[in-house]
Design goal:
The chain has 25 helices and 30 strands. It has 722 residues and is an alpha/beta fold. It has a 7-stranded mixed β-sheet, with helices on both faces. Strands 21-18-17-22-23 form a 5-stranded parallel β-sheet. Helix 14 runs parallel beside helix 20, helix 17 packs across helix 18 and helix 23 crosses helix 25. The radius of gyration is 29 Å and the shape is globular.
Length: 722
């Protein structure tokens, strides 16, 4: 069993973001030469040279602000003491970060801060985890000369938010929380109210946090250098003592987190600064909503029952496994091999999914295995494989920062994928154009500092018609990237597509009545998409949970190929996966017609490889999909199912049909954290492990394989994974 990886050293805060420049300059920091990209701040250059300049308002996740005056430096040949966070490096610049003059100035600045700050460090919830405390030590402050006068020590607390507290008496008005809310999250829920001595952080015109636009993403809490904004869990339990890096298990973004604990008790989840998908940001779910893992309703012991009318009986693991195995054997002896099947979960690790599909194929000797992605994202798998040859999105999340036009189809990123939504909003605020294709007026259509260039408010069910109309305009107006097509596409197939898409019946005018979108609106959107330098498409369940899902995915792929928007940053066709491991579950061989790696079961070479690996002969006929299994159950030919971490009685379409099918089975095995709707039809219940207890990997929507490490001991008593 692998031990959790402890993170012993905090990631270095370089003070200001990295400068994006191909040219470099050489500066001398305290006599040490360092080469940095042009535009890099003196503070960041000093950090790279191994010198930490004292700071309070600066952090490398936010643009430089220059308000705290603690980061003063001396620059040879210049008057005064400029702030190192807002002063860019220049070729040959010589900087001193530590002199008697600077020591005196910094100590005076810190003295002013402390004169209006509670001196309760020993009993403060941030004791040992407070930048103000650290900086007071760094500058050598030992006393405060100022007598007690006007202050903010009696300022009240706002405990309205269920996850964190705001203590105004400890606020130093550094604006880091305000800047995090605007720059990182993009909600603009916080501001600095009033001026001068009366300045204070205010959410939504002095409303309470809970009554404001705040979405509880935690960016403000993460940015706060004092105990002003503090997790209530930390206030109650104390500062954590150890850390383990893992991956969030909610949506397809796949955010990396540092779980901070006291012993085996989880205190808080902190977004990992080095997380490739989230880059130090998080949403309310990943940051705060992990309490379900320790909820009193969790089932932690296996249970069995003879019939669904009987009471559950707690048993030990060997008995539960033997009970299920005996039932499954009896079913196959009586009704045949194909009377059993399984469903894998897109919330479980790659390793867990692989084991379940292997169990169905190798032990049960059938290819009747499917996944809950059947409902939400199998059209992505089929459509992208048909067009691009691979069942995955084309770009990573960071590439959105290079997009000139962003087209969002059937998705609501700010609600369903908030961390990526924040990245997208940042790019839109920087000037990228936005096209929204959705019957709804989602937040992105119009929100603070963002307005869609085009909103194609189509009639439900007309996705393909609208995208074909866009393609028609591009083809007939001569906006096709002919060089890209000749180099990267199958020319014969392209010519056939061009002939079809150019037909009058695909024109915006002809489809306007059907789609509900004015022809002029479609033509404007087509011009915006085709004429930009980089155009990216992001789509969600509004596309894939549809009878035309696969066709629509292929239509979007064709649109991108025709305009050359594939193969570089800022472009592509990018599915926003709904769950944390949809991509991985598909990769692991959860479809009835494909082994792991999307190798068809009829492929003799693939079958031989798996036969050699698993030591059993494998069948070449594809198995049944979930709808087929349910139909067969009602007809009496399908009698048992293993369901891993999925609540099909609640989530699959036509719930009455699902319930009837489950009721007709002789043995249903459910593995999950809680008794759900599907468990009402189960004969065996096996406790699952939460993401905090797992060891393995998740594969997110951008195909990033993220490590999942066990943070706490498993509630079921069994370790999942390696």
């Amino acid at each position: 069993m692998n031990k959790p990886i402890e993170i012993a050293i905090e990631d270095l805060d370089l003070g200001t973001p990295a400068a994006l420049s191909e040219s470099t300059v050489t500066v001398h920091i305290d006599g040490k030469a360092v080469d940095v990209p042009a535009g890099t701040s003196i503070m960041r250059a000093a950090s790279l040279a191994g010198t930490q300049i004292p700071k309070l308002c600066a952090t490398d996740s936010l643009d430089a602000h220059g308000s705290c005056r603690l980061c003063l430096v001396e620059v040879e040949g210049r008057k005064g003491t400029p702030a190192s966070c807002t002063t860019p490096c220049q070729e040959g610049m010589s900087v001193k970060t530590q002199t008697p003059r600077l020591d005196k100035l910094r100590k005076g600045v810190m003295e002013l801060y402390i004169s209006d700050h509670p001196l309760d460090c020993l009993t403060c919830s941030a004791n040992g985890d407070c930048e103000l405390q650290d900086m007071a030590g760094v500058v050598g402050l030992r006393s405060v000369r100022y007598e007690e006068g006007s202050n903010h020590l009696d300022a009240g607390k706002d405990n309205s938010n269920p996850y964190f507290s705001f203590d105004a008496s400890k606020c130093i008005v550094c604006s880091r929380c305000v800047r995090a809310c605007s720059e990182v999250q993009g909600t603009f829920a916080l501001t600095i109210a009033a001026r001068g001595f009366e300045s204070k952080v205010s959410p939504s015109e002095e409303n309470a946090f809970l009554d404001s636009e705040c979405v509880s993403c935690g960016a403000c809490v993460q940015a706060c250098p004092t105990a002003t904004l503090q997790e209530k869990q930390v206030i109650d339990l104390g500062v954590p003592t150890r850390k383990v890096k893992t991956t969030c298990a909610y949506c397809g973004v796949g955010c990396s987190f540092v779980a901070e604990l006291r012993g085996d008790e989880l205190v808080r989840m902190v977004p990992d600064k080095q997380g490739g998908a989230n880059a130090g940001h998080s949403c309310v779910k990943g940051r705060f909503a992990w309490g379900y893992a320790t909820h009193s309703d969790r089932i932690t012991r296996p249970m069995v029952r003879e019939t669904t009318d009987s009471e559950w009986r707690e048993v030990e693991w060997p008995e539960a496994i033997a009970f299920a195995a005996d039932r499954f054997k009896a079913i196959q002896q009586k009704h045949g091999i194909d009377a059993l099947g399984g469903i894998t979960s897109s919330r479980c690790t790659n390793e867990e999914v692989y084991v379940v599909q292997k169990m169905v194929r190798a032990s049960l000797q059938t290819n009747n295995v499917d996944t809950c992605a059947r409902v939400c994202h199998s059209p992505t798998g089929y459509g992208l494989k048909q067009t691009f040859g691979t069942s995955a999105g084309t770009q990573d999340f960071a590439s959105v920062q290079q997009a000139d036009v962003i087209m969002v189809i059937g998705a609501n990123p700010t609600d369903a994928h908030p961390v990526f939504g924040s990245r997208m909003k940042r790019r839109l605020r920087e000037g990228a154009k936005l096209i929204v294709i959705d019957p709804r007026s989602i937040d992105l259509v119009k929100s603070p500092h963002i307005k869609a260039t085009s909103h194609l408010q189509l009639q439900p069910g007309t996705n393909v018609a609208v995208v074909n109309a866009l393609a028609h305009v591009i083809a007939t107006e001569g906006w096709i990237d002919e060089a890209f097509v000749q180099e990267r596409c199958d020319v014969a197939s392209f010519n056939a597509w061009r002939r079809f898409i150019s037909l009058p019946e695909n024109s915006p005018e002809n489809l306007a009545e059907i789609s509900g979108v004015a022809a002029e609106t479609i033509r404007e959107a087509a011009a915006t998409y085709a004429k930009a330098g980089n155009s990216a498409i992001y789509y969600g369940l509004g596309v894939t949970e549809h009878s035309q899902g696969s066709t629509m995915v292929m239509a979007m792929a064709n649109l991108a190929m025709a305009t050359g928007n594939i193969g570089r940053d800022g472009v592509g066709i990018n599915p926003l996966r709904g769950q944390n491991n949809v991509q991985g579950a598909c990769d692991m061989g959860s479809f009835p017609h494909e082994f792991s790696g999307y190798r068809h079961v009829s492929d003799e070479t693939a079958r031989e490889q798996f036969t050699a690996l698993w030591g059993v002969d494998l069948r070449e006929e594809p198995g049944m999909r979930i709808p087929n299994m349910l139909d067969a159950a009602i007809s009496g030919n399908f009698r048992g199912m293993y369901i891993q971490g999925e609540d099909i009685a609640q989530s699959d379409p036509n719930s009455q049909h699902v319930a009837a099918a489950l009721s007709a089975m002789d043995c249903v095995v459910v593995q999950d954290l809680f008794l759900n709707e599907t468990s009402k039809f189960a004969h065996v219940f096996l406790p699952g492990t939460s993401f905090l207890e797992k060891d393995g990997t998740f594969t997110n929507a951008e195909r990033r394989i993220n490590r999942v490490r066990p943070v706490v001991p498993p509630a079921s008593g069994l370790r999942s994974g390696r």
